[in-house]
């Protein structure tokens, strides 16, 4: 129980904040940590009754907890390309640690652009993006690269290197960040077993089926043991049975604590697995 002072009477009143209230003040706490402070312009009250002085004390106490609760935060994000209409317009949402969220919408809705911005391979035209407690607009390119080590990305077109084996494709994700050869060998063998492809370790990608190539891409994203997994239409070119097996795999990963954001337009999958949904259309959130 935390005591805070209220504006109504000036007396101390006990407050037990709920998860929803903690998440609702995250923009306040994080912005206070990351930038120059403007009490009048930036203050966001928890309830409308808590006085500013006590709320500031409460926010300082709460900051580490909010960092743990929220993994992905977007506030008023816009993305435009020269000579075209806006790809994203006023995107605001948060995803808590351990959530599994579907990002839905028709082709061209902005799903891939949004995932790339969260991953840091594209920058927004405007807005704030906070991933695992780090504000992307306030870190340099090296900082973004370090942040990506905590995020796995499953690309829609796999992006496997055709001249390298399955083992080498997965190992590369660890080698580029300086993991020792012995640890690379151990982790790659473990993750290939996990996705059911250890017997294919010495095969080249083009000798695999589409479902197997997708599992290699997933293994490459997971071998770093990321805190966040982003997946761009990972079931788009698979039959329903394989698509279900891929989402089951993501659900297992999520059950171990990884936050998952998966883009899909497959309504059957969304209805079957019944997770939270963020719906996009023409670059805007519609539901």
| CA distance, first residue to last residue | 35 Å
* Unreliable residue stretches: 1-52
What best-fitting shape do the alpha-carbon axes yield? globular
Q: Estimate what percentage of residues fall within beta strands.
A: 15-25%
Q: Helix and strand succession?
A: EEHHHHEEEHEEHEHHHEHEHEE
The assigned structural class equals: alpha/beta
Q: Indicate the radius of gyration in whole angstroms.
A: 21 Å
Secondary structure: number of strands = 12
Query: What is the share of helical residues?
Result: 25-40%
Report the average pLDDT across residues: 80
Tally of alpha and pi helices: 11
- Order the strands across the largest sheet as they lie in space: 8-9-10-5-11-12
- Main sheet specs: 6 strands, mixed
Notes on the structure:
It is a single chain. The chain is α/β, with parallel strands linked by helices and 287 residues long. It is built from 11 helices and 12 strands. The strands form 3 sheets. It has a 6-stranded mixed sheet with strand order 8-9-10-5-11-12, with helices on both faces. A 4-stranded antiparallel sheet has the order 4-3-6-7, sandwiched between helices. A two-stranded antiparallel sheet has the order 1-2. A hairpin with a 2-residue loop joins strand 11 and strand 12. The N terminus is likely disordered.
What's a quick, concise take on this entry?
The chain is an alpha/beta fold and 287 residues long.
């Amino acid at each position: 129980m935390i005591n805070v002072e209220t504006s109504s009477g000036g007396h101390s009143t006990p407050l037990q904040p709920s998860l929803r209230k903690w998440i609702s003040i995250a923009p306040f706490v994080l912005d206070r940590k990351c930038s120059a402070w403007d009490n009048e312009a930036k203050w966001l009250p928890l309830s409308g009754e808590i006085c500013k002085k006590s709320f500031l004390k409460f926010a300082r106490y709460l900051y580490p907890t909010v960092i743990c609760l929220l993994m992905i935060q977007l506030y008023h994000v816009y993305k435009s390309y020269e000579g075209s209409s806006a790809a994203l317009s006023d995107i605001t949402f948060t995803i808590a640690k351990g959530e599994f969220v579907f990002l839905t919408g028709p082709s061209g809705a902005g799903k891939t652009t949004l995932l790339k911005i969260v991953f840091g391979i594209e920058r927004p035209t405007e807005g704030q993006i906070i991933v695992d407690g780090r504000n992307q607009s306030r870190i340099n390119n090296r900082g973004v690269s370090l942040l990506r080590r905590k995020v796995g990305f499953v690309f829609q077109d796999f992006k496997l290197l055709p001249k390298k084996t399955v083992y080498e494709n997965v190992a590369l994700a660890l080698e580029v960040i300086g993991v020792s050869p012995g640890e690379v060998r151990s982790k790659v063998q473990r993750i290939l077993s996990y996705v059911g492809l250890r017997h294919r370790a010495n095969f080249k990608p083009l000798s695999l089926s589409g479902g197997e190539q997708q599992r290699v891409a997933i293994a490459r994203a997971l071998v770093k043991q990321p805190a966040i997994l982003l997946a761009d239409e990972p079931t788009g070119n698979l039959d329903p049975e394989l698509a279900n097996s891929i989402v089951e795999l993501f659900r297992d990963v999520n059950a171990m604590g990884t936050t998952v954001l998966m883009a899909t337009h497959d309504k059957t999958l969304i209805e079957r697995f019944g997770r939270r949904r963020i719906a996009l259309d023409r670059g805007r959130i519609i539901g």
